[in-house]
Give the backbone structure.
Amino acid sequence: MKLNIALLAGDGIGPEVIDQAVKVSDAIAKKYDHEITWTPALTGAAAIDAVGEPYPDETHEICLAADAVLFGAIGHPRYDNDPSAKVRPEQGLLKMRQKLGLFANVRPTFTFPSLIDKSPLKRERIEGTDLIILRELTGGVYFGERGRKDNGNTAFDTMTYTRHEIQRLAKKGFELAMTRSKKLCCVDKANVLESSRLWRETVQAMEKDYPEVEVSYEFVDAVAMRLVQWPSSYDVMITENLFGDILTDEASVISGSMGLMPSASVGEENRLYEPIHGSYPQAAGKDIANPLATVLSAAIMFEDFGLTEEAQEIRAVVNKSLEEGIVTEDLSEGEKAYKTSEVGDWLAANI
Ligand code: IPM
Ligand code: MG
């Protein structure tokens, strides 16, 4: 297969982890006789520095022309403590999600057998966890009306959802549930928020189209608790943008390191693969960040192209690296810590 992939490394550790995913993907391509053309493009603070804006038109054109986008991370501390900054790297990410129509963010959480005792949660709590949070990605409070009034002394952000936005996300949730254990949990705050009541009403109305799927409705605060108490009780979860942002960071703790969790952001036409972690600026340039979340994001990419065996091989070699202790410092626990690039080399060499 010929694949044209846009490569958006972004900021912080982005370029380092992306390099490893490229190494691994190229090794897979070589072994299985595929041809990958990587087209790098600017995004985030790196793009602001170069051209004054975080998601330049040229980058958008490259993404549109590609079969998929592989994305690293976005964010720079220079902007975090400057609330008055006019352009921010994160705006690039939001603009990209919106312009590419990536309304569904698929964030799986699972455990790795060799890491189960590295999770801060007890083994008996997390064993068997295999859940997917389907986060709505182009609506809600991230994109609703916002502003200041009262001479700047009052600020507001609005959580807005249309029935259509909820339906298209929920449809993906139902379909995903049908391929798994046929359990779907709709996470909302319908006891308080009107937008959540529209979510519940919309999802309830769709239940008849998927009679085999057992749907539960839970409030987000209760889910935040049960997610760490009894994560294996969940399977597919659907939720709005901000709730999903928060719950997926929480869920990443289950696996033992945030550096392990991949994701896919998909729409009707475009697909983007990215680790769920951020740009981790403290580690940038040090060759210490865990590349596995990005490598596993590339695995989802292969799977989505129908290249299941290739995806399985990436997952298998990742598991092997964990079992053999070829890990970065976040997982090394006093044992030898490998560099980001060494982990990438090892993975590629073992394919
Ligand atoms: C994520 C990140 C982003 C988000 C930030 C960097 C804007 O936290 O992808 O989860 O909030 O969506
Ligand atoms: Mg987040």
